[in-house]
Model the fold of this input.
Amino acid sequence: MKSRSLYQSLSIFKKFLLAPVLGLFFVIPVAFYLLLTTKEVQEDVYYVNQEMFPLYELTRDNVILLERISHEISSAVAAKEKLWLEDAFVHAQLMKKNMREYRDSSFAKAGAELATEFDLYFEHVIELSKNIIKSDGYYDGIEQDTRLSVEYYLKLDFLLKDLQKSIKEEIQVHISSVDTNTSFLLFKGALLFIAWFIGTIIITLLVYRDIKKRIGQIVEASKNIARGEADFKDRLELPMQDELGEIVDSINTFISNLDQSHKELLQTKEELQLLYVRDKLTGLHNRVKIDEVIENEINRFERYNIPFSIILADIDHFKKLNDSFGHLLGDEILQEFAQKLQENIRNTDFVARWGGEEFLIVCPQVDEAEASIIAEKLRKKIEENSFGGHALSASFGVACYEMKQSQDQLLHNADVALYEAKKRGRNQVVRFDSL
Done:
């Protein structure tokens, strides 16, 4: 047991010197040979641990940041709030800072191209978002600008993933180099020892088998990491204190870091998913989610002939309040108004912020007359309460889905009814079928 413990404490270099000590004249050349090859292995390991793994994590972070920027800009456009673009600027600066880390690496050219494409994408998409918000959703040239924005995004996403793939391949190359150099070291060392000292064959083979087995475990684990197949719960357990033991410690540390990053990535995806379907200010569903709800209701109608209606609500004179008392009061009114709608609809109804001070309610299993009753109830509740310390009223447009009607036509009908309610003096409910 004591001799075993002593063996484990020896470095790879010293383990292979166990055989040369039997032949004094062969110790010096063998030692020099082993030293050079071991140094190459250590350099490969150092390069992977200190340069490649950090670059891989950095590239993965940039992928996440790009997704965040895209969702934050989408949320700002959907809500027509320029102020919400500030989060995108913060993450864009962080992403640019990350890209500067590529300058001193072997991926400097790819990093420079990535930075250039990101600047083009971000500058264009910010300008596009501002134009959409400013023009209330449409302006001449929006289709061309949108297509260009998508092209920039797809190219940027491709460059990021291609860079991530290149780094993975670089890691695999160097890990394979560790395997090749070490195997070459062991094989040549074994041949030299066998040729000079037959008596050292047993010692050499034992060392060879032991180290080869551990290298195989290390290489396999490293390849699994590079392929993204590592089990974060597992750790390599090799009771050695030599260079391979140091490699094992580095790999275990990296797996632990990946485990933490994986958990953070899952949490980030959950947060992004929530932001994707929720309005940031009011907490209601946004246009993305309500579009899905309407589509599902249309499918139910077409299959089972189950009716449904929609209610489009707009706060009367909201712009005047917002301009007079500021955005803080405007935000407070929108939040309280959204809460009041949520509290006074049926459990089966869906309410969403449609944009600005407009809200959309989907009412399953009701026709236009029944939906008008729901809208009238909401109108009275709003008239009876104050919002941000101010009395408010709201106008409502009601429309019911009809066979083979498109979603856009349904929304248009509700909008026409809402416009008529505004035209008639506001604070009232107008049904599209009454026009």
